[in-house]
Amino acid sequence: MERQLTDDYERVLLRRHEQRIARPLRTPRPRPHRSVPLGYVSLREHPGRRLPQLLAGLVLYGFGLSLTVRAGLGVIPWSVLNEGLERHTPLSFGMATAAVGALVLLLWIPLRQRPAVGTVANITVLAVASDLGLHFLPTGLNTAARTGLLVAGILMLGLATAVYVGARLGPGPRDGLMTGASATTGRSLRRVRTGIELAVLAAGWALGGDVGVGTVLAAVSFGPLAQALLPYVVYRSEAERAAAAGDGAPPTAARLPAVEPSSAPAPSSAAEFSSATAPSSASAPSPAADAPLASSA
């Protein structure tokens, strides 16, 4: 009798446990920088959307660069490095920029990055867009207007970086270094980009480049802005969208038979279960009923 009560008690507890584990599990939300695809996607996929996105991002970047230059409160870290090289070498500012770009492209090799149409467009479109911006922007502005140009330029640079990198047609030399280092090390885009900008800034300052308030703001702002905006503008391939749609249903812990819920609380001990299910005196068998069995033995 006692063994039967113990078995019944264990079955009740097992039902309660099955009811709890049959509920869908909560899957942890993936970290944003790891859920955003950044690899190159063939131009054959939706070129009508991605090419305009690439060109728009590069034009915005060139115009944002001209805003920061016209503000006169400090150039971006890469320009600080170019100015430093110009002072210590016979290279002009443009040649120094090309030399730095070539060096950065060499760093792509260990990071397994490949140049593409976006890499070539980055070199050509940026030069034209920045020159046009400097041509049309006024000069001789007061401090308040220059501060506004600086803030607008930094915001535009962050947005433009996310837009043309999100087209996934091949990043520019500096952005390829950012995405390649992020994929290799597993670090977020924010940390990688900020670290690169600060390292370039330190090297340019050591070579005598001009550093201002805008330089520091740009160095610490590009990474967070690009990481925050990239998930909203990145292009996802058809295979990636199909995989994301297939993984949308939340998984369950196990496929268990349906168990009817019970309103009564589970017994806390075997003794309590025994007292709750013990037969009453009215239904208990009498000794007389067992007498024939005893006599027959």
TrEMBL record:
Residues 246-297 are annotated as: Disordered. Keywords: Membrane, Transmembrane, Transmembrane helix. It comes from the Bacteria. Signal peptide: none annotated. The chain crosses the membrane at residues 54-79, 91-109, 116-137, 149-167. InterPro entries: YczE/YyaS-like. This is Uncharacterized membrane protein YczE. It comes from Actinacidiphila guanduensis.
